[in-house]
Amino acid sequence: MANDLFAIPIEQLRGVSTQKAGELHALGVSSVGDLIEYYPFRYEDYRIRPLIEVKDGEKITVEGQVATLPSLQRYGRTARLLCRVTVEGMLVTAVWFNRGFLKDQLEMGRHIHLTGKWDARRRQITVAESSFPDRGGAKTGTLQPVYSVGGSLTQAWLRKKIDEALNQYGAMIPELLPAELLDKHGLMPRREAIVRLHRPENTSEGQEARRRMVYEELFLFELKLQAYRAANRKQPDGIAHQVNNDEVRAFVSALPFTLTDAQKQIINEITYDMKRPYAMNRLLQGDVGSGKTIVSAVALYMTVRSGNQGALMVPTEILAEQHARSLSKLFEPYGIQVALLTGSLTERKRKDILASLQIGLTDIVIGTHALIQDDVVFRRLGLVVTDEQHRFGVNQRSVLRRKGLNPDVLMMTATPIPRTLAITVFGDMDVSTIKERPKGRKPILTYWVKHGMMDRVLGFIRREAELGHQTFFICPLIEESEKLDVQNAIDLHAQLRQALPELAVGLLHGRMTPAEKEAAMVEFAAGRTTVLVSTTVIEVGVDVPNATLMVVMDADRFGLSQLHQLRGRVGRSEHQSYCVLIADPKSENGQERMQAMTDTDDGFEIARRDLELRGPGDFFGTKQSGVPEFRVANLMEDFAVLEQARDDAAALTAESEFWTSPRYERLRAFLSREALFDGEPLD
Ligand code: ADP
Ligand code: MG
């Protein structure tokens, strides 16, 4: 393609030596097109502002006239050049350090531009840069782009090369977006936007240019996703569940509580999905305690009633056992058989369960990773649910799914992330969000205390115990050593037993046998122990509504989302609940997390801050890496645009014209250039 800027090697630009070209390559710039799209990450402000607006110590740029003869003073190795300049009719002192050579150029009456730090009291500018308008080339009045540079490349050189490239090749910058979208959103043409990004006349122009490029970047990204979706359109080869609405209504009204509107709404969405002959792929996200389990229970009920089996996979044994207990109880009156499959079953028990699954005697199986082993075979798997799905890798989920013939899939997570981000990260799926908690729940009051305040924490535990409520006491997690971790829990348990002789104090940690663990959980859930000292094994999913106090020892060792999960173990009833974080006030980055925890108990807000503190890659963990990196767009700031871009891309790709009309040839070329179809399919 003759007019493709990306086909013109950077070496063809005047003044780009082999060495410079090498250094540009290191920045990812190998063609003129790359250079033109090498955007600044910020701007240096050389605009003139009235002195009266400038605060003491701020950086300013002024225009003035030399009013006195300069004087040059030397202090040891430092040379100080002083001169008065009239600015806006006022005498201002300009001071340069080690710029003695300027002395002869400071002629009386000559116009001069000064940029530097303003000392309001002395009316003095410590000059960082100065220039004479009669010489030309002044930056005054402009915003200067700042690029990331490396090696021997300087800002000035790069600015110049980009300027030259824009002047010489700018006319060749193609428009990528269809005119109707530019109109719809009032976006400037691409060529103009790129020029303005490099050389904005003012801030709002820079922002407008950025807005255009952010939209384009997100739109193209969404277009790729949508085109992929169109090319892999779902086939009607899933299970069309036969759902009897009256039966479901009866099931729901027999529950010990009334569903929230959000729960009802999502059950409706799921019912709709499950009835259709397309395989459901739905992510249900809802903050800790929002009541996701019961939603999945209704879905499991529906699959069983239409002659299928359901599987519920969870990340920990403790959670599997809890779900097995509560779901067995829930389903018992309906004659629905629930089995628990974990790694710690005896071989005989396991064989029994596998056999009854295979012949269809077991309706619902709940388990850990043990569910995805080869010898687990279903007679007719209709629905796969994963709880706390962010704990599973993509593979684990699809292995379970493949144990059926395109079963419906429901994934649940308490790590709430914005819908569009969920799709960009987890692939193509529908997303439901529970935003409200069951009625009567009070916000969890959270305190951050020092280690020295243990006595007051003990007093707190006693007070809650007097009200008949229970406490979780979480011990620090020691990453290097599970052994130390366990020792900590054992020590703390001993201490608390001594300090609280009147209360029953239980213990739970990863080195206990599965039977011991379950016993400890059952004792606590039944209220026979008042305090449960535990490691983070109870972090996700555990549901003991009577527990109202969560104490986290050395809270600064935990991540923000993890702390929020732990806190979510309380606040599960109408009783006021509390979370006490014991943390060293001097711990450096702990502070921000403790602050965030005391500021809010809204999981969405916590997730947002966590994402901010850690960045998307880290936030989603290595398993979910592949979070796209954008050049101009910022997923945190530009969500609204991402949503808009997604809708636009969906609408466009839905039209047959998009795939045929010459008007969209450029976009189609973009799609095929992006090698859309040779990557891993989205989950
Ligand atoms: P999570 O979304 O964290 O998994 P759970 O499903 O464990 O939350 O529900 C939290 C608690 O709230 C449980 O004890 C559950 O029985 C209860 N619950 C769920 N839905 C409601 C509701 N609509 N009204 C009252 N309590 C509810
Ligand atoms: Mg849960």
Automatic annotation (TrEMBL):
Residues 453-612 form the Helicase C-terminal domain. Pfam families: DEAD, Helicase_C, RecG_dom3_C, RecG_wedge. Keywords: ATP-binding, DNA damage, DNA recombination, DNA repair, DNA-binding, Helicase, Hydrolase, Isomerase, Nucleotide-binding. It catalyses: ATP + H2O = ADP + phosphate + H(+); Couples ATP hydrolysis with the unwinding of duplex DNA by translocating in the 3'-5' direction. GO terms for molecular function: 3'-5' DNA helicase activity; ATP binding; DNA binding; hydrolase activity. Transmembrane segments: none annotated. One of its GO terms (biological process) is DNA recombination. Its EC number is 5.6.2.4. InterPro entries: ATP-dep_DNA_helicase_RecG, DEAD/DEAH_box_helicase_dom, Helicase_ATP-bd, Helicase_C-like, NA-bd_OB-fold, P-loop_NTPase, RecG/Mfd, RecG_dom3_C. The keyword Cell membrane does not apply. SMART domains: DEXDc, HELICc. It comes from the Bacteria. It is an enzyme of class 5 (isomerase). Residues 273-434 form the Helicase ATP-binding domain. Belongs to the helicase family. RecG subfamily. Plays a critical role in recombination and DNA repair. Helps process Holliday junction intermediates to mature products by catalyzing branch migration. Has replication fork regression activity, unwinds stalled or blocked replication forks to make a HJ that can be resolved. Has a DNA unwinding activity characteristic of a DNA helicase with 3'-5' polarity. This is ATP-dependent DNA helicase RecG. It comes from Cohnella lubricantis.
